[in-house]
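Researcher: First entry.
Model:
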Amino acid sequence: MSRNALWVAAASVLVGVVVLGLKTMAWWVTGSVALLSDALESIINVAASLGALVALHVSSRPADANHQFGHYKAEYLSAVVEGVLVILAALTILREAYNGLMDPRLPDQPFTGMLFNGAATVLNGTWCWVLLRVGKAHRSPALVADAKHLFSDVVTSVGVLVGFVLVPLTGWPQLDPLIAGLVALNVLWMGWGLMRESVAGLMDEAAPPEVVAHIRQLVSSHAEGALEVHDLRTRHAGRMTFVQFHMVVPDQMTVAAAHAICDRIETAFAEEMKDAILTIHVEPEAEAQHHGVVVV
């Protein structure tokens, strides 16, 4: 994991604290149930950003005697925790929305509250875009999960702002908690999706079809001298993709020649898929299965 990604994760904590301050001020001047719910979600955002930072730090550690394949899955654990926190935030918002429906009232100073909340929303939306770009560039589940978490916060804030526009126009105070409740349901759905994706990573889900197709093309193009490659398997662990396959070579081929083919394939992967770890099992011609990757 590059230092750039770690710095972005650390900056997320600072951005979360600033956004929390802005939303707390918006709630304080208005007394709005929806803004209180929005501020509560931002508290969880700060905690989630801290979790992502810790996960990135742990995943960047080199392999050791107890973790011989590295610490890459720490990012998935962070993403699962973030999913749980998003769901907790949604349930908290639903509770506050229910309390608001039981005791509805019009917000105070709605324009001032909109300014504070609007500034927080713009900051969150901008940082969400930065996190998503860096997370995808570094193939970091923790940063991508943090970006999705922030996006759920942006959706919440937009819903709250819509409510703030409609409540004074309609004079209907129940609209404030109703908007908060609807947004909470959307946040709940996003949290479930985030947890589902993270658990798939912990369960060693295979690489996406387009990545597997690229792997097959790399092997086929750089395994000249071999006969075939079969039992190609992939799995993800954080930003890393583990690739393993059986490579069949002619019976008369020397160990040195077979090793040279493996070196050529590994060099190609190092140039085009830097975050891939290969395991190649060399087999004699009798083990050919006549399926899988036909070497060109």
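Researcher: Second entry.
Model:
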Amino acid sequence: MSQSVLSLKNVTIYQEGKSILSDVNLDVNHGEFLYIIGKTGSGKSSLMKTLYGDLPLIEGEGNIVEFDLAALKENDIPFLRRKIGIVFQDFKLLPDRTVNENMLFVLKATGWSSAVDMQNKIEEVLAKVGMRDFGKKMPHQLSGGEQQRVAIARALLNDPELILADEPTGNLDPQTSAEVLEVLKKINANGKTIIMATHDYALLMKFPAKTLKCEDSKIFEVIQQRMA
């Protein structure tokens, strides 16, 4: 039985008709933690957008959580995203709703109906990120790190096979970034596969893991050393 949660073969990533990355070959197994690094414009976000269906895969073969990316239709995308948790740099919380209401919005949109089951799930995921007592807070009442923890909790609601984190610490200070990484690493230690795009090399040194670099239209593995 294959343990692969993501497989890309001879893929070219396009953004607005322009080739951004070419000859991408990648296999990610269940339970892995993978960094994707590179300068702004090197293709990190375009790759991530292709993985969650925001950009079409038009050249090469791609399979993610049993979805064929090359054959993905628009009405397949919501079903794909129920099996993938996505964490963005800018949190994307609904500003006019409490933390609990943000969670309820996602659960109702993905087919949950039992009020008891939804409340239990919300409490479960908020507890995993240390935010169980913040359910009645509005997003503007939270710090950036707290908002990102809520965003991570939201990504866990439908028990995804894979979490895609696109620059999740990009708007955070170094200490808060490290705290968010500790949350992600704990989630990974409990069996979740995580792919994280980042430009924060200090985090890679503090929390080493398999690392791929986007550079000169290619993506390749690099070896990271832990800081002394």
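Model: Note on the second entry: The chain has seven helices and ten strands.
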